Amino acid sequence: MKNEKFLDQLINDLQPVKTFAPPIQTALYWFVIAVLIIATLDFFMMPLRADLAQKLSEFSFILQWIFLLLISVLAAMAVSWIGRPGRPGQKLLINASFLLMGVFSSIFAARGLQMGAHLGCEFGGVRCMAAIIMLSILPAAFFFWQSRRAASVYPGLSGSLIGLASGTIGATALALSCDDDKPFHLLEWHLVFPLLLLCVMGFLAGRKVLRW
Hints:
Blueprint: H1 2-13, H2 23-45, H3 52-56, H4 59-82, H5 90-114, H6 123-147, H7 155-174, H8 183-209
């Protein structure tokens, strides 16, 4: 009798389990929050480039934004999909994120070679890389916190995709401030170096934070 009363009490005290939001909703929610965070940081920490009005009228500049934001959305969706084991389309989103990043980087490499430019290391480029990483830390941390409720079977990969998703928004924001449009500068210091570093950092953090 006592056991029955105890079980009845447990049943009455049960609370409804909060279900995880659909992957697209989760990804878009993070994306909007990340854009707001990075836009706010960029506004208060970095001056706008003097020729911004002119650049916003150039199709190539807008296309660069579209590419980067699309990569960010795809990477965020991939993280959300990986967090729900068994859902179809995981590999497609993962491959699309990294493939589009590769295509985008190749475009800048081709433009640089066409102009006869050369790869090189410059202090201004290091500052751009540091700025992108700095802008990306808070959105990445928020995404890690948001993803802890998921059940990713590839925590390292999820962390790398979080780094990619955050870094591409950071690179988009930096384009509002950095007036160096040389293809190899953008390739090295706005894409390859900061995004590679963020992906590695995300991989290491994911293996620690997203384990279950």
